[in-house]
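Design request, tokens follow.
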């Protein structure tokens, strides 16, 4: 099977766009200090397929990620297009989450502030700010750290914990976000890191936090009928802006 043939019938080459966006997300993760060099993984389902996934080959630093580097692998971890290695935990975690939850994009990191919260006995996000209120009820919590993911059964377990949530906090481990697009998943990763940072800093004062009421949270999360920008449009504008920043600071990701 030829992966280019998979996208041949698609308008404007969505496969190429997915590779460009995935490379950009890796470099943005470096910009915001989300990465650990060559470790952790971002994956995207190949457009038009549910059983094939794009990923950066293991061994490349996230700062050097390019669209042309991206390889395609299947649920067994076999590379079916491109050159490189799919690291064991990448397909053990990501392939099952894609398959079970239906997520098109899965991002997993050990980024500092989210991890700091996940090192605490109580790692729950407290909706004490406007941004954190948007995540209220949308974060799954995996409280059963099981070591490194060496078998797909771990991905199956994590997918069940994730359910239909947008973010998963992984106790003693890290954070995972999903999305329909790369921009959506990355924006969730970016915002949850800022939420975690603000909460850790607020907690460090030793003063009690002041959660927003459930009624106000419901109001904040409700769509605004007269807003000309829906959520997906905001996510697109956000990610387009981030790529323009990359064009000036870390060019080459689209190669």
């Amino acid at each position: 099977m030829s992966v280019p043939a998979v996208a041949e019938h698609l308008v404007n080459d969505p496969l190429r766009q997915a590779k460009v966006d995935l490379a950009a997300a890796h470099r943005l993760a470096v910009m915001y200090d989300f990465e650990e060099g060559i470790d952790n993984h971002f994956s995207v389902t190949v457009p038009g397929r549910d059983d094939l996934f794009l990923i950066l080959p293991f061994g490349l630093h996230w700062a050097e990620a390019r669209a042309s580097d991206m390889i395609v692998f299947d649920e067994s971890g076999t590379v079916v297009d491109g050159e490189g290695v799919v690291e064991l935990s990448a397909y053990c975690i990501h392939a099952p989450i894609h398959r079970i939850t239906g997520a098109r994009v899965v991002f997993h990191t050990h980024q500092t502030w989210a991890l700091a919260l996940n090192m605490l006995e109580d790692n729950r996000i407290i909706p004490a700010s406007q941004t954190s209120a948007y995540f209220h009820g949308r974060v799954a919590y995996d409280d059963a750290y099981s070591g490194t993911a060496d078998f797909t059964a771990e991905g199956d377990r994590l997918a069940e914990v994730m359910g239909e949530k947008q973010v998963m906090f992984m106790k003693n481990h890290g954070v995972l976000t999903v999305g329909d697009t790369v921009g959506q998943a990355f924006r969730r990763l970016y915002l949850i890191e800022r939420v975690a940072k603000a909460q850790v800093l607020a907690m460090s004062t030793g003063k009690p936090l002041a959660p927003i009421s459930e009624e106000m949270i419901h109001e904040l999360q409700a769509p605004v009928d007269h807003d000309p920008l829906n959520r997906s449009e905001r996510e697109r504008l956000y990610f387009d802006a981030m790529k323009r920043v990359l064009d000036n600071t870390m060019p080459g990701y689209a190669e």
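Comment from the thread starter after seeing the answer: thanks! The chain is about 45% helix and 15% strand.
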